[in-house]
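ugh ok fine here u go
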Amino acid sequence: MNYTTQMDAARKGIITGEMQAAASRELIEPDKLRRLVAQGTAVIPANKNHKSLDPCAIGEGLKTKINVNLGISKDCCNIETELEKVQKAIELKADAIMDLSCYGKTEEFRRRLVEMSPAAIGTVPVYDAVGLYDKDLEKITAEEFLGVAEKHARDGVDFMTIHAGINRETAARFKKNPRLTNIVSRGGALLYAWMELNYRENPFFEYYDELLDICRKYDVTVSLGDACRPGSIKDATDASQIQELIVLGELTKRAWVKDVQVMIEGPGHMALNEIAPNMLLEKKLCHGAPFYVLGPLVTDVAPGYDHITSAIGGAIAAANGADFLCYVTPAEHLRLPTLDDMKEGIIASRIAAHAADIAKGVPGAVLWDNEMSAARRSLDWTKMFELAMDPEKAKRYRAESSPENEDTCAMCGKMCAVRNMNKVMSREKL
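structure:
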């Protein structure tokens, strides 16, 4: 039986190779995943032209996935440096990589990225349009914006962030409800400016059906961007954010009519007590579509440590229904991240995702922790390093401070509770 997209196949009762592979990673039956994809509560971003892909599923009841942002810009345009980051992100088990390139040879970088990456690849076409056409923003046509989206789809990207929810109605709501930090989404700000300069509707909203046709042709998952995400905790859960979320829910249903998979992007900056209600709002207003969040960052005053503010919010968000976490590095709000910044951001996001999976009872999640605890009880350092989320750092910390007794650490020595309990329970002398 023929099918056009993963959603189309799922609705026809077909279990694709991608569903088989993704279900195996989730420790669930393929038909269970097929049902989730059919109803839109899970997605498998898998462009037909991404031949190196190791498919993963994102959504309800599945392991929380993490995304890494990379890409070239005018200030940092070394393709080889960014590809080095890509390789490291893959080694650190990122589930997806977003190419946010906005300058220079974006096509070369994107194609090499797709060719080498088993992780799902995402892009933001509006960024590329500004650099590709090399002309003033207001002079880029609706057709040209769509042309960039089709180029990305043809090149093999698995999901695209499309800021279609910032339409004229949403913009009017924003004007009536002033914010402390206005619009902080780069894509959202570009499209808001384009609408204001041209007195026209957002082209991705006006020609949304044409965009869906492109996505259906290549099986690209639409990641509906949150142009009005809060850029400060003061702006969280305000009229602009909720107005856009309502529009995104309507756009989700239109995509599903064409068998196009959808994710919803979310905040942003948000106080701890607002995170759980926001997860419920998204799931209600967007009909259970997978939720992809940036953070949320739970305070605005920790530049240099926003991988931590993000991990705190991400763990709470995922435990309450978010499905996909976009990593944040220590360099957030300050500069483009280095390789080391990227590593810290990935590990922080993976900790948040795993902690949430334990809370949600995701199949197999807690087994990893139980294995680590068993290795600690046995003082099996080799096994502990093997199980560590970051083995390299764990080994380095142990090597930097050698204990007198090899079966202990430098903190407790012979007073180690684990060592002493093992000896007492086996009736050995301390």
